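Methods: holo model generation. Sequences were used as deposited, without trimming of termini or removal of tags, and paired with ligand SMILES retrieved from the corresponding compound records. Each pair was processed once, and we did not select among multiple samples. The sequence and zinc ion SMILES for this entry were:
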Amino acid sequence: MTIRISSAFPTGNGLVHQVGPHEFVIDRDLRDSTGDRWYWHLRLHSDRDTMVRIRLARPLLIGQFGPVVSTAESRNWLWESPGPDTDFEVPLQGQNVVGLSATMPYGIRELEAFRVELGAAAIWRALTRSESGGNVPLLIVPQPKSKFLVLLTARHHACEAMASYVLEGAVSEFIRLRQAGNHIASQCELVALPIMDLDGVAHGDQGKARKPWDHNRDYGDSSAYRSVSALRDRLTSDGRTVFALDLHTPGLRGAIEEVPYVISSGDPGDEEIAKTFLTKLNSLPGWQNAKSAKPLLFDHAWNSASSRSGQCCSAWLRSRRNTRIALTIEYPNAVDQGVPVTIHRARTFGALLLRTLTAQM
Ligand SMILES: [Zn+2]
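and the model returned the structure below.
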């Protein structure tokens, strides 16, 4: 019997060592990132039906409900109840490919499906070319006469795939509100940058904490990455009042990794804005199971609007005179307050974020 495991596909990542006929040790491939990163995504193929045993090279490479198992028909967490982060067994059907991953994968293929789903409701453009020559996607739900701009960004950190489903939910909710005649959604324009680190997402990079810095620490005096530079240029030549959310995800396991957060800086007034946002968010109906998101204070230079170097996206936005709100949001990768994260729940959270944002216009 031959079992093949590969990371050589878009969004693929992982280091694999075979230690027995049906047993493998897998690890995340750190590449140019530093620190305790967690992203991996592999495909397995066997010529016959078999059970494969996977041992994990380090802790925190899977969430409480195991890895995500993807087949042609479904994409689900392996376990229905919480289990350890040391090892797992997964059945392979002969001649069928099974995907295994730390979180729900989201690459160019998923974005393309979203583009088809939106149809004529959105306009798609290229923000710029990535370093590898790909078109960095830019989505617009237009209202050229608007005074207000809703700005959504995701995947400054390539591995943070669940943030893309949150973004999908927010964009879809904006379109739904506009089609329903909502006054605010009709009067303002939405601009979304669904994949800021296009090359990193395509290659399956961690993307976070790259050496010497990553896309979200590229908002200092000048920018090294083409997408960041192009976004800054675009906003600098756009005089409209900005309401912005930059979407992220934390790690896989642990109390702080398993709840949504709104990140506040230590700058005067920022915590009040974050708390006002949270109060509104937590008061909205339609958020079953997960009771609330929480505030998290990062009083660091990169998160401050007055810092000159290594600023993050939302801090740079807050440093601009015509930004009204710019918040970093974290949504869990695997577990939200005891409940497995799903694509539907991530989209629902995104829809609530969008309604919270527009409620403050
Ligand atoms: Zn992030």
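The chain has two domains: 3-101, 108-358.
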